[in-house]
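As the work plan foresaw, the team has encoded backbone shapes as discrete tokens. One protein thus recorded appears below exactly as we store it.

:::
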Amino acid sequence: MSEFLAITFDTADEAEAALRSIRSLESGGRIRLEDTAVVRKDADGKVTIHNEASSGTETGAVVGAVLGGLLFVVFPVAAVVGGAVAGGLVGRAAAPGIDGSFVKEVGEDLPPGGSALFLQIKSGQAELLVGALGQYHGRVRQTSLPDELEHALDESLR
């Protein structure tokens, strides 16, 4: 089962920096991310969202490519359409990723110049987030982490 975490920050660059810290845990094999998103709100109130592809999207792309390749031999035009449809369906079924409407909602609620980080953790030691994110100043917006871990993380972000 994956864990979800959304953290808001008062500055535009902290969400990206926090994601880099989490990526270092991932590259060390201590945590596996399923999906991530970073949202920024500029001084004029314009919201930009950088949503990375989830593993479900990646799975869907691979399945779509394989099916398209197999069908291309027999039905060239149908292969392109069929591969795209199959890939989308498999990607959606494999892992829904971070809810886009929630990401937009949080982005709209950010103060000008603020940012937010969204993580969907596939596996690993979620308690490592406390140490990795402790150098940043933010607030836990929403999480599916256990209460004691959420409290420790919230305290480390102050």
Observations:
- The helical segments are 14-27, 55-74, 76-94, 100-109, 128-133, 147-156.
- The radius of gyration is 18 Å.
- The domain at 3-54+98-156 is CATH 3.40.1520 (hypothetical protein tt1634).
- The chain has two domains: 3-54+98-156, 56-94.
